[in-house]
Amino acid sequence: MSPVGVQIRRPSKVEYYDGAEHQVKKGDVVVVEGETGHTLATVVALPEKNYRGPKRLKRILRLANDQDLLQGERNRTRELDALRICKRTVREMKLDMKVVKAKFSLGGGKSSFYFYSDEKIDYRPIVEKVRNQIGLKVDFIQVGVRDAAGMTGGIGICGREYCCST
Question: Is the entire prediction scored with pTM above 0.90?
């Protein structure tokens, strides 16, 4: 096992993956197994000798090729469109939830929407509507207010990036 630190999105926390099968260096873009399927990540920390995390790690699947990078760019554009659609649908349905982020798998066959709400929400009705509008499998994931702030980013009163973003 060779734990390599990667960030799936900047800013985000560093996650460790097994990089034993690949010769990676800081700054390399790699394909890993993420929450929504295969996703792009950037290597930010090389193998650590004093690693004290879990013994079983997901592995780095491969170095990203040009096609992966192009698909990642397409997904970012599609994520913005899907986020707008989802927010509009939430407003139309008058649901008490705030959608903060959309994420697509690298293959583009699955989408995840992250939202927060003060109370438990039955979001099943919106899943059907959003799925029909974007034409993909849709998951909704409820997060806390602090996680939502970390996903959207921002500047704190100290003038630095939110601690929860970094």
Answer: no
Q: State the Cα angle at 106 between 148 and 10, rounded to 5°.
A: 40
CB 100 within 8 A of CB 143: yes
- Alpha-carbon distance of 135 to 157, in angstroms, equals 41
**Of the candidates 48, 41, 43, 17, which has an alpha carbon nearest to the alpha carbon of residue 103?**
41
Reported as a single tens digit per residue, the pLDDT across 102-147 is 988 887 788 889 999 888 878 788 899 999 999 889 999 888 877 7
As a whole number of angstroms, the distance between CA 32 and CA 17 comes to: 8
Structure confidence at residue 11 (pLDDT): 63
Gyration radius of the chain's alpha carbons: 17
